[in-house]
Specification:
alpha/beta; 28 helices; 7-stranded parallel beta sheet; 6-stranded parallel beta sheet
């Protein structure tokens, strides 16, 4: 929305001064009137109210409104002779904060900051002699004697903007004052009927109220309106995508009665769960239509997504087409290939002697394959001999051609760039159907916001025979004997005939050393490097796990070596696998029952949940130990406690999202564009997002090209820069 015409004016054309424009552009990425007016206050201070000083975060740039309690000039002997230091104590009635000014900089504040004076102070919070302080803060006096400050802060509520050291909150407020009159000409993206029906104020009014509110009700009305802008424009973009997809042609893929799918189902040694049956039905309905399926299949770790995907692939093979599964790593591609050929048995031996009548060929294609095997795989794809192909990014290369690509299954969607998915989809004669799988469950509203163009299926049941996983935090620094006990537990599991994983954040080879050397000396001093696979494996082998069969696995090993280690571990020839997150997805060894995650605080919530899903995959219960040296009260430990107390991936994804915020979630990093969300939060504003989706779908159905909604079209153009439009199109 930052480009609606009245708001499109460059800030350089306003009477702000070149220096201000330069700082706004470089420090805050604000270039137009619209950019500045959509830079909303973070919070508001009330004139009669003082800010809580007790809760100030260390090392952050803050703006506080407080009253001077006392001020004194001290003389000291420094390296350059005698000097002066001004110490000012400010208070909010409950806490106190010290300000310090040195040298020639003491005279003006000594004159301005008399006891009883109220002002806004901005600076970076530091610690000196165990007390919080601001050194040389900027300040703006709040006096009631008709001076400039009263003009600037005419309202009862003082806006506090997200600021930087080069551009304090009150300077941003003055810049906003200069451009705010232009808001009157802002084109409103919301259709009048929607605005009136929902009781929302118009855009110019909302911008005025959010920047210069007279009451708290003004702020609430403005935020409500601006949330709708963000939710609605995004949902219209996604609704247009969905609508465009329904206009594309695709080959309907229906399984043939008595075909390979029926043969596969007949030999399954177990019954599908209710969830698997329901989701399969949704997918088969989509595959039978003549426009491309776009479906997101999300499910808990171990809920049987691969089985659902394989049945969809076999249905496409039955209809005469081919299916491709794209996996993010070679380890995972090999694992999928192995488990799929095992599940299919003789049905995967197409073209071989003794193969079943309806068999097909299941081919693996990865970057590290030998030339002969690769040539054969490419030949099987182009002739149609291979009905199912599983591969890594190697599938996307130009020389890879299919006979008739009907379905693309993308495993672990968040690990692929949109260009990669798009390149694979472009290999079909007509757009193939698309099934996206993720084991990182996404709350419904995030799915609607991020994958609003995909229909969503959820698998939330675990197959029969899967065991629960007990998770515990091991506070290694506070209670070292807990860590010793963790290694005893690993020995006990191995003694009972089971296997274990030990996961570390780092490999520990020369490449790591090069990366590490880029850290600043301060960082080095503050944080020890994360624990490394090679070091930990060596120490365990010589110490607490001596005598056990231990091997390492990480991403920089030769593919053949990786495959060899995984095969030996799966065959039970190894007791303990010390690995990086290369085992995070898809690795399936039912006999592995224990996992110890070292420096667990260095991993994200979803990643820990994924890793934990590697144990408890058989009939024996799983155990996951989260080792951390972080203090008990730290946010990192609270995060680990959350992981330890619930196995509900949806609940964990909410916690993860609340910590990471949406910028990350919206995948803007992939499109190289700032997050478009300013006031909308996808977790808290579920109702607004759901309502906006309904309104957007109805509007696009009635007017796909938005001919009757020029204001909305302009807002869309601004939201969807060419780059972001491309990102959505490739989705």
């Amino acid at each position: 929305m930052e480009g609606v015409p009245a708001l499109d004016e460059p800030l350089s054309k306003q009477s702000l001064g070149p220096a201000t424009c330069k700082v706004l552009a470089e420090a805050l990425d604000l270039h137009t009137v619209g950019d500045l007016l959509h830079h909303y206050p973070r919070r508001y201070a009330e004139r009669g109210e003082l800010t809580t000083l007790a809760d100030l975060p260390l090392d952050e740039h803050v703006t506080v409104v407080a009253q001077v309690a006392d001020a004194r000039v001290l003389t000291f002997n420094g390296s350059k002779g005698r000097g002066q230091r001004l110490e000012v104590t400010i208070t909010d009635g409950s806490g106190r904060l010290q300000l310090v000014f040195f040298g020639k900089g003491v005279h003006k504040p000594h004159h301005d900051l008399l006891p009883g004076t109220r002002a806004m102070f901005a600076g970076k919070v530091s610690l000196f002699n165990r007390r919080l302080q601001l050194a040389h803060p900027s300040y703006e006096l709040l006096r009631g004697d008709g001076d400039e400050a009263v003009g600037t802060w005419a309202g009862a509520l003082i806006p506090i903007y997200p600021a930087t050291t080069k551009m304090e909150s009150w300077k941003i407020a003055k810049a906003v004052d200069t451009v705010l009159p232009g808001a009157v000409d802002a084109v409103d993206p919301l259709p009048p009927a929607l605005r009136e029906g929902r009781g929302l104020i118009d855009l110019p009014d909302a911008l005025n109220r959010i920047h210069r509110p007279r009451t708290k009700a003004d702020i609430a009305a403005a935020r409500e309106r601006l949330k709708w802008d963000e939710a609605f424009v995004l949902q219209v973009a996604l609704a247009r995508r969905r609508h465009a997809d329904t206009q594309l042609p695709a080959v309907a893929r229906r399984p043939a009665p008595g075909g390979i799918l029926d043969a596969f189902d007949a030999k399954l040694p177990f019954t599908l769960t209710e969830g698997q049956t329901k989701v399969s039905a949704e997918i088969f309905d989509d595959l039978a239509t003549e426009h491309p399926m776009h479906r997101l299949l999300q499910g808990e770790v171990g809920s049987g997504k691969t089985m659902v995907a394989l049945r969809a692939m076999l249905a496409v093979v039955d209809s005469g087409g081919q299916a491709a599964m794209l996996a993010p790593t070679e380890v995972l591609a090999q694992q999928h290939h192995r488990s799929i050929t095992e599940m299919m048995g003789e049905l995967a031996e197409g073209g071989m002697l003794g193969a079943a009548e309806r068999a097909t060929k299941v081919v693996l294609l990865t970057g590290s394959m030998g030339a002969a095997a690769r040539r054969q795989a490419l030949l099987d794809l182009v002739t149609g001999e291979a009905g199912v192909v599983i591969g890594t990014h190697a599938l996307i290369e130009d020389k890879v051609q299919f006979h008739d690509l009907g379905l693309v299954v993308v495993d672990e969607q968040h690990r692929f760039g949109v260009e990669q998915r798009d390149a694979l989809r472009g290999k079909g004669k007509q757009p193939p159907h698309l099934l996206v799988m993720t084991a990182t469950p996404i709350p419904r509203t995030v799915a609607m916001t991020v994958f609003g163009d995909l229909e969503t299926s959820v698998l939330d049941q675990l197959p029969a025979g899967r065991s629960p996983i007990a998770s515990h935090v091991v506070p290694a620094a506070d209670k070292p004997h807990f860590l010793a006990r963790a290694w005893e537990r690993v020995r006990e599991e191995v003694g009972n005939g089971h296997q274990a994983y030990v996961v570390c954040p780092r490999i520990g080879d020369e490449e790591d050393q090069k990366k590490k050397s880029k850290a600043s000396p301060e960082d080095e001093a503050e944080k020890r490097p994360p624990l490394a696979v090679l070091d930990v494996a060596e120490k365990l082998g010589a110490g607490p796990l001596a005598g056990l069969r231990i091997a390492v696995l990480h991403g920089r090993m030769h593919p053949d070596d990786k495959d060899d280690v995984m095969r030996r571990f799966a065959a039970g020839e190894l007791d303990v696998l010390v690995a990086t997150t290369v085992i995070e997805v898809g690795v399936n060894v039912p006999n592995a029952t224990a996992m110890v995650i070292m420096d667990a605080d260095r991993f994200g919530v979803s990643q820990l949940h994924q890793l934990r899903g590697r144990v408890g995959r058989g009939s024996a219960p799983g155990l996951c130990l989260l080792v951390s040296e972080m203090p008990e009260a730290s946010p990192a430990r609270q995060r680990l406690n959350a992981v330890a107390t619930t196995l509900d991936g949806f609940e964990l994804s909410r916690i993860d999202l609340e910590q990471r915020r949406e910028g990350d979630v919206l995948g803007q990093a992939q499109s190289g564009v700032r997050s478009s969300l300013r006031v909308l939060t996808v977790i808290d504003d579920e109702e607004v997002i759901a309502a906006a989706r309904e309104e957007a779908t109805a509007l696009v159905l009635a007017d796909p090209d938005l001919e009757s909604h020029p204001g909305l079209r302009t807002a869309l153009d601004a939201l969807l820069s060419e780059e972001r439009e491309e990102y959505l199109d490739k989705g």
